Amino acid sequence: MEAPLGSLRDGEVTTIFVIALGATAVWFLLFPPLRPTIVSLELARTTARVRRILGAWESHAMSKAAKRSVLTDLAWIPLYTVALAGLAILASRAAVAADAGETLPSAFAVLAYVALAAGALDYLENAGLWRLLGGHVAQPVPALTSLVSFLKWAAIFVIVSAGGLMLLGHGVRELCGWLKPG
């Protein structure tokens, strides 16, 4: 299976990955500080927890900041999605370079598409968050929002951990090859 952007050269994919990763990091700084965090609301699951989080924000005049966090996320999603897809594509190419057979590069190619799915899940999650912030705290909104959020976070975890380990292994292999005499 060919990953998205499969026709691009390694240097082009790397450039896209680095730019997206940097933009993701810079954009992250625009999120307002919230206590409890917006992730707490994403994964609240129950009406009681949602009410507790919203109440804490209300008592500290943070309700507008919570809404601003969701709006900030709308522009952040494409940035981190491209960074995740770039990581998966680079990991797929590293697996090819490591002569890892066909399965591992294909699995990383699939993870590039999973990165795109994670972005779509984040937009669905934001729709749920917007409903919760609008006072619609009855079930099934908290449970569905949390389920979508969990799936998004699970996808991100798999891509970052597997892709990161593959690139780390590839880098160590290249470094060891470079250090060998002759």
List keywords for this structure.
182 residues; 78% helix; elongated; mainly alpha
Task: Tell me what you see in this structure.
It is built from six helices and no strands. The chain has 182 residues and is mainly α. The protein has one domain. The longest helix is centred in the C-terminal third of the chain and has 39 residues. The model has no long low-confidence stretch (mean pLDDT 94).
Number of helices: 6
Poorly predicted parts? none
The residue fraction in helices comes out at over 70%
Report the end-to-end length measured between terminal Cα atoms.
37 Å
- Strand share of the residues? under 5%
Radius of gyration: 19 Å
Number of domains: 1
Order of helices and strands: HHHHHH
Q: Kindly state the mean pLDDT as a whole number?
A: 94
Q: What general outline do the C-alpha atoms trace? A: elongated
Largest sheet: none
Q: What is the number of beta strands? A: 0
Structural class: mainly alpha
What's the quick description here?
The chain is mostly helical.
Strand-helix topology:
Elements (H helix, E strand, L loop, with lengths): L9 H19 L9 H5 L4 H13 L3 H35 L5 H31 L7 H39 L3
